[in-house]
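User: Please predict the structure of the protein below. I'd like the answer in structure-token form so I can feed it into my own downstream comparison script.

Assistant: Understood. Taking the following sequence of 488 residues as input:
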Amino acid sequence: MKTKYTFIFILGLFVGLQSCKDFLELEPQTYGTPITNTEADSVFYKTAGEVEAALAGVYADFKNEYFELDYFVNGDAQSDDAYAGADNPDNFQIDDYKIIATNGNVSRDWEYLYTTIGKANRVINNVLDVTDSDLTDARKKEIIGEASFIRAFCYFQIVQLWGDAPLQLEDLKSLSPETLPELYMQVYPEKSTADEIYNQIILDFETALENVNVTADNKEIVTKGAANAMLAKVYATIVPHDWSKVNAYCEAVIGGGYSLLPEYDQLWDNEHENSSESIFEINYYGGSVDHNWGTQMFRGLDWKKFNTPSNDLVKAFDDEGDDIRKDASIIFLDVTGLWTDSHWPQTNFPFINKYRNFVSPSDQNYIFLRLADIMLLNAEALNELGNLSGAADMVNQIRARVGLSNTTASTSDAMALAIEKERRLELAFEGHRWYDLKRTGRAIEVINSAIDENGDLVGYNLTEDRQLWPIPQAELDKNANLTQNPGY
């Protein structure tokens, strides 16, 4: 009823304002903000500089709270790799699979992601109308490709977290009698199915692949390698999985000029940023404006930090004899007198060690895509396609770098578990684990089998419904066209 009366109220305003030149501006909070340009030619961007600045604004969202903090909470604390840590009840809900629709993280993540999508939509939908000769047709295509990649990257987060969700592809126009019906559906959208969202994600990543540059010295610029990597991830996630396409896109990345760093720790020593292994990496430069405050959320002795490494993960490292990746990923410190924890003694308390530059203002980069990830994904595809030896070769290359012997997996089922374990140890605290377990259908079994400090079950009770998040209650309250996810 609230939505209905809002629409009638807006319509009523136009009855009295149709002769006016300036129309009411409606600014919803989560699906972008309306274009306010009212010049006769209706071209929003006038110069090449305006377009480049708008694209930079889309890229800049990789440095917001979602990607600096929540991306890792969602991918790691929501898995068996980390406990929530700290003292935030919203994080505890995520860690324990007891999220409610008023959870603050859920609400803000929805808003962050859709806000970035709104910015990308504005660029995609308006760049071709710019007549400034300094903006070439070739550059316009690159811009559309880069913005499409970012839009798809955000929708990939959304569909994995919420499943069915609104699919918004148009930037909001200024409100007028002509645009009112379209604008209404944009402000109060219904859900699209997960399949529809995945179809658009694939289309956007394909657009990026066709139009962006092959390489970039600054790895935070979208390249064909990043687009290939994300297409591989999408085809490994959609149901049914398309392993032939996963294999093809992985091979395109592997053959695209990337190479593993010789030492695993070089990925995290802050001396090899934008390396040959990195595919997509967010660069920070320090200072008051461009520092990575997210690293302070995971390491330091000033307060109890988020994403405390789990006993289950430490045991997995120890069982494998994987000292190199364990030491690179986790550091144990004495926190006596600072805080207590039910899982760890004060004298031997673990912190994430991959993000080591945690003193403000930090210039620590975040690597979102790297070659080892794609090689192990390729191993999955090869195994599913019946190429056991090819899968073993990929796994063994990753293991050799950290001084481990070749995998002993000799059947397809054993290889699948070996790859799952390898991804866990290789990619710990990089935001992948939760999504890996979900896409392989292993989340419930693995999570509910996680052990604590005594070797007993932690006591998680992950169910089918809880593999998706609730639609934020605030969104339901203002949009009667949205429906809540099952189980909430």
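That's the full token string. The radius of gyration is 23 Å.
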